[in-house]
Every structure is written in C-alpha cells, then in structure tokens.
C-alpha cells in the first residue's frame, strides 16, 4: 500500500504543470516597458504560439517618465513625472476602491507631488493622472 501511494504520488507530479509565467521586456536603459503573461506555455514560445493573455501593457509611453514610491504606502506617496511637451498632466485624483474621490490636486504647473495617506484607512486606492490631451492613466496603490 505504501509503495503504491509513493508510486502514484511520483506519477502525479509529472502531470502537474507550472503556474502562470510572466516575462518582462526592457529598454536599453533597463526600464521595464512591457510584460507578457502566459498560461501553460514556455517563456520562449509564448509569443510564437500566441498563447499570450496580456501583452505589452505600458503604463506610460516610452518617452514619458513617471515614478511613484513607496507602494504599499504607510504615510506619504511620492509622485514624480516628466512628459512630452504636448502632453502634460493637469490633475492627479485619488479614488477609493469603491470609486469615491478622496483627493484631487491641480498639478498643471509642477512635475512632482507628495500625497499624505496618513488619514486614509487601509485598503486599495487608485491614483488617476489626467493629461492635457484627454488621456488618463491609473495606478493602483495599497495603503497599509
């Protein structure tokens, strides 16, 4: 009985497949520019077999620079950006996961912002950047 169980266990491990794989793409400076999520395929064949679920998810264009830290945040979130001439960030809004706007900042004349999260309850927040050309980008922030 014991040998049968061990043999069955050994064969069952051969049938188990690896978890989802994520591969990342980088530019020449070493910045992450895209990610590819693949299910039940090897990283080398992910694009060739078109088994990709999510690909080339860029937060901002390659010419834009946007950084934020720390995430998860405890007290204060620091944002910094540098965008193209035609494309400027006008507003930064903070929303709770329920969709309630908890803060809004006019940032049309600055390129960095510090947001205090001290009075916000723990949870997930969305930081929305409104661009002058009508585009919007969202960042998910976790408050501990």
TrEMBL record:
Pfam families given in the database record: Por_Secre_tail
The keyword Cell membrane is annotated on this UniProt entry: no
Signal peptide: 1-18
Protein name: Por secretion system C-terminal sorting domain-containing protein
Organism name: Flavobacterium phragmitis
Secretion system C-terminal sorting domain mapped to chain residues: 69-140
Keywords, sorted A to Z: Signal
């Amino acid at each position: 009985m014991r040998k049968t169980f061990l043999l069955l266990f050994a064969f069952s491990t051969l049938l188990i497949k690896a978890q989802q794989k994520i591969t990342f793409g980088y530019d020449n400076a070493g910045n992450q520019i895209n990610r590819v999520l693949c299910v039940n395929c090897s990283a080398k064949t992910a694009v060739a077999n078109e088994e990709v679920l999510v690909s080339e998810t860029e937060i901002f264009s390659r010419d834009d620079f946007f950084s934020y830290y720390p995430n998860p945040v405890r007290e204060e979130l620091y944002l910094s950006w540098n965008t193209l001439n035609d494309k400027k960030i006008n507003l930064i809004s903070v929303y709770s996961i329920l969709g309630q706007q908890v803060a809004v900042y006019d940032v049309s004349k600055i390129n960095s912002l510090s947001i205090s999260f001290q009075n916000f309850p723990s949870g997930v927040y969305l930081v929305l950047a409104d661009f002058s050309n009508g585009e919007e980008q969202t960042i998910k922030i976790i408050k501990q």
